[in-house]
Amino acid sequence: MPLIVLFLLLLAAVFLLDNRIIFRILFVVVNLWLTVMYFVIAEIQTAKLPQVPWFDPAGVSGTVVVYLALLMTAAGVLLFFLSRLLFVSRLPAVFPFIGAALLGIGLLPAGSQSAAHAAGGAALILLLLHIVFAALGFRKIFKI
């Protein structure tokens, strides 16, 4: 818990200092982390399907899914503020919230295979959209 408080104080100091270089680095780090997370969502949602190589009959713990959904929500809020400060499109800031909702599908008690297929496919589409919008955002903030 003290590490979280220190991280939040550091983040508040960064935003108060208004340092564009740190904003750009943070924007890149958050986008790269989200790129990995969308792939992880697809793996989590399809882990109970026997036709995938990462098949795990037990699936993933509900607690882990909730923590990942909370992290995705926090990343979405952070991405929204960073995109506002760096004057890039705010549309990609919506994607982490959709990812958190896709993680929530795995917590439904029904556990049907069609829902897992749909959530896994939606996560991969979200991954591809995120890559495109992140590349456009990188291009704009680094003026390539």
Large-scale geometry: globular
Rounded to the nearest angstrom, the distance between the terminal CA atoms is: 40 Å
**C-alpha Rg (nearest Å):** 17 Å
Order of helices and strands: HHHHH
Low-confidence stretches are none
Oligomer: single chain
Number of domains: 1
How many helices? The count is 5
Number of strands: 0
Task: Give the structural class.
Answer: mainly alpha
> How much of the polypeptide forms β-strand, as a percent range?
under 5%
Query: What is the percent of helical residues?
Result: over 70%
Main beta-sheet annotation? none
Average pLDDT, rounded to a whole number, is: 79
What does this structure look like?
The protein has helices at 2-17, 20-46, 62-86, 95-105, 113-142. The radius of gyration is 17 Å and the shape is globular. Helix 2 (20-46) runs antiparallel to helix 3 (62-86), helix 3 packs antiparallel against helix 4 (95-105) and helix 4 runs antiparallel to helix 5 (113-142). The chain has five helices and no strands. The protein has 144 residues and is mainly α. It has one domain (26-142). The N and C termini lie far apart (40 Å). Helices cover 76% and strands 0% of the residues. 28% of the residues are buried.
